[in-house]
Amino acid sequence: MSDHSPIIDVDPVASTSDAARGARPSEGDAFRAPSYGKGAAQAAVNATIIDGGTGAKRKPSRIGGAVQTAVGGALMLVGVPMLILPGPGLLAIGGGAVIAAGGVKKMRGK
Fold this sequence. Notes:
By secondary structure, the protein is an all-alpha fold. The protein is built from four helices and no strands. About 55% of the residues lie in helices and about 0% in strands.
Protein backbone atom coordinates (compact mmCIF):
# COMPACT_ATOMS: atom_id res chain seq x y z
CA MET A 1 0.00 0.00 0.00
CA SER A 2 2.42 2.63 -1.18
CA ASP A 3 -0.32 4.78 -2.70
CA HIS A 4 -0.68 7.86 -0.49
CA SER A 5 -3.79 9.28 -2.16
CA PRO A 6 -6.44 10.43 0.29
CA ILE A 7 -9.51 8.30 0.84
CA ILE A 8 -11.80 11.29 0.43
CA ASP A 9 -11.14 13.56 -2.52
CA VAL A 10 -11.16 17.04 -1.00
CA ASP A 11 -11.19 18.91 -4.32
CA PRO A 12 -12.85 16.66 -6.93
CA VAL A 13 -12.97 19.37 -9.60
CA ALA A 14 -9.24 20.01 -9.48
CA SER A 15 -8.33 16.32 -9.53
CA THR A 16 -10.66 15.67 -12.46
CA SER A 17 -9.34 18.61 -14.46
CA ASP A 18 -5.74 17.52 -13.75
CA ALA A 19 -6.58 14.02 -15.00
CA ALA A 20 -8.22 15.48 -18.11
CA ARG A 21 -5.18 17.62 -18.93
CA GLY A 22 -2.92 14.59 -18.83
CA ALA A 23 -5.14 12.40 -20.99
CA ARG A 24 -4.95 12.43 -24.75
CA PRO A 25 -8.21 12.39 -26.70
CA SER A 26 -8.86 9.24 -28.67
CA GLU A 27 -9.59 9.26 -32.39
CA GLY A 28 -13.33 8.94 -31.77
CA ASP A 29 -13.37 11.99 -29.49
CA ALA A 30 -11.70 14.33 -31.97
CA PHE A 31 -13.69 17.39 -32.97
CA ARG A 32 -14.96 17.47 -36.52
CA ALA A 33 -16.20 20.75 -37.93
CA PRO A 34 -19.61 20.63 -39.62
CA SER A 35 -19.63 20.31 -43.38
CA TYR A 36 -21.81 22.55 -45.46
CA GLY A 37 -20.73 21.30 -48.88
CA LYS A 38 -21.30 18.06 -50.76
CA GLY A 39 -21.16 16.02 -47.56
CA ALA A 40 -24.13 17.91 -46.14
CA ALA A 41 -26.18 17.21 -49.26
CA GLN A 42 -25.34 13.50 -49.02
CA ALA A 43 -26.23 13.49 -45.30
CA ALA A 44 -29.60 15.02 -46.17
CA VAL A 45 -30.21 12.25 -48.70
CA ASN A 46 -29.30 9.57 -46.15
CA ALA A 47 -31.37 11.12 -43.36
CA THR A 48 -34.22 9.11 -41.91
CA ILE A 49 -37.55 10.89 -41.88
CA ILE A 50 -39.97 9.85 -39.18
CA ASP A 51 -43.49 10.82 -40.16
CA GLY A 52 -45.57 8.05 -38.60
CA GLY A 53 -46.81 6.52 -41.83
CA THR A 54 -45.64 5.38 -45.20
CA GLY A 55 -48.79 5.84 -47.25
CA ALA A 56 -50.48 8.96 -48.48
CA LYS A 57 -52.57 10.89 -45.99
CA ARG A 58 -56.29 10.27 -46.23
CA LYS A 59 -58.72 13.12 -46.43
CA PRO A 60 -60.85 13.35 -43.26
CA SER A 61 -64.37 12.00 -43.61
CA ARG A 62 -67.17 14.54 -43.34
CA ILE A 63 -69.54 11.92 -41.95
CA GLY A 64 -67.01 10.97 -39.28
CA GLY A 65 -66.62 14.65 -38.42
CA ALA A 66 -70.38 15.07 -38.08
CA VAL A 67 -70.60 12.04 -35.79
CA GLN A 68 -67.69 13.31 -33.71
CA THR A 69 -69.30 16.73 -33.40
CA ALA A 70 -72.59 15.15 -32.31
CA VAL A 71 -70.85 13.00 -29.69
CA GLY A 72 -68.99 16.04 -28.37
CA GLY A 73 -72.20 18.04 -28.18
CA ALA A 74 -73.98 15.23 -26.36
CA LEU A 75 -71.14 15.02 -23.86
CA MET A 76 -71.38 18.75 -23.26
CA LEU A 77 -75.13 18.45 -22.71
CA VAL A 78 -74.60 15.62 -20.22
CA GLY A 79 -72.03 17.78 -18.42
CA VAL A 80 -74.46 20.63 -17.73
CA PRO A 81 -76.60 18.76 -15.17
CA MET A 82 -73.43 17.37 -13.64
CA LEU A 83 -72.57 20.91 -12.57
CA ILE A 84 -75.36 20.65 -9.97
CA LEU A 85 -75.56 16.89 -9.51
CA PRO A 86 -72.55 14.90 -8.31
CA GLY A 87 -70.10 14.33 -11.12
CA PRO A 88 -67.31 15.98 -13.05
CA GLY A 89 -69.39 18.57 -14.90
CA LEU A 90 -66.62 20.92 -15.96
CA LEU A 91 -64.49 18.02 -17.12
CA ALA A 92 -67.35 16.61 -19.21
CA ILE A 93 -68.11 19.99 -20.77
CA GLY A 94 -64.43 20.62 -21.55
CA GLY A 95 -63.92 17.14 -22.97
CA GLY A 96 -67.04 17.45 -25.09
CA ALA A 97 -65.84 20.78 -26.44
CA VAL A 98 -62.48 19.27 -27.43
CA ILE A 99 -64.16 16.32 -29.15
CA ALA A 100 -66.64 18.58 -30.94
CA ALA A 101 -63.86 20.92 -32.10
CA GLY A 102 -62.01 17.96 -33.63
CA GLY A 103 -65.19 16.96 -35.43
CA VAL A 104 -65.65 20.46 -36.82
CA LYS A 105 -62.08 20.38 -38.12
CA LYS A 106 -62.80 17.06 -39.84
CA MET A 107 -65.98 18.41 -41.40
CA ARG A 108 -64.14 21.45 -42.73
CA GLY A 109 -61.48 19.19 -44.23
CA LYS A 110 -58.50 20.42 -42.23
